[in-house]
Write a structure and sequence with these properties.
This protein is mainly beta and 215 residues long. The chain is built from 3 helices and 10 strands; from the N terminus they run αββββββααββββ.
């Protein structure tokens, strides 16, 4: 059985999670009906075949390197919920994605061309609110497919969902075969997420919000 250690390395990450948690104070009547579960999507061929030594939720910096990754810094947050809208505690959320040059951290994903300062993979362990948070980059255009971020969710060390988040506005989305495998258009739309510029950011950061609803 695999044991996950999901530690936040910097205090700003902890504060960001607390801030994100405050956005999700929901009234009971919001969940009078069951929520629409997040559609599964394929894992793809580039889940890391060798996990990086650093697997925390800050993908912008690897270990304690000074130089950050290249790309548009994105604050990605959301909650892991069940169908009733109850938060799922102690769920492990994983993400993996390409760097600014569309390269994965995989032996077949880019080799020496990868951004050595981009972690490419991260984990987060949810608390009582079900909230998660990652600092990453906005995924760039990807050959043959829309820009996307891979997600996996685990409960009791068992993967219960594999899916993908798509960047709103990418014209390739509506032609993507994997995206279109989900036949319900309303469920498909839950996978498309706005990456909104943060107005007060002096370095052009953006934010994205994606809730993971488990069946």
């Amino acid at each position: 059985m695999q044991t996950f250690n999901c530690w936040t390395r910097r205090k700003f990450v902890q504060n960001a999670v607390l801030g994100a948690t405050g956005l999700y104070t929901l009234r009971p009547e919001v969940f009078a009906e069951e929520l629409m579960t997040t559609p599964p999507q394929g894992e793809g061929p580039f889940y890391p075949d060798v996990l990086p030594l650093d697997t925390d939720n800050d993908l912008i910096r690897v270990n304690e390197r000074i130089t950050p990754a290249v790309g548009t810094i994105t604050h990605l947050s959301g909650r892991v919920l069940d169908r009733r809208g109850d938060p799922v505690r102690n769920a492990v959320v994983e993400i993996w994605q390409v760097d600014n040059q569309a390269k994965y951290i995989h032996t077949r994903g880019g080799g020496d061309r990868v951004d050595k300062n981009f972690q490419g993979f991260g984990r987060f362990l949810t608390g009582s609110s079900g909230a998660y948070y990652f600092r990453t980059i906005k995924p760039p255009a990807y050959p043959g497919r829309p820009a996307h971020i891979h997600f996996a969710a685990y409960r009791n060390d068992k993967r219960v969902l594999t899916t993908q988040l798509y960047v709103a506005g990418d014209p390739k989305i509506e032609r993507d075969g994997l995206y279109l495998r989900e036949k319900d258009p309303k469920r498909r739309e839950t996978l498309v997420v706005d990456f909104k510029p943060i107005k007060k950011s002096k370095i052009g950061e953006c934010e994205a919000q994606f809730d993971v609803i488990l069946g």
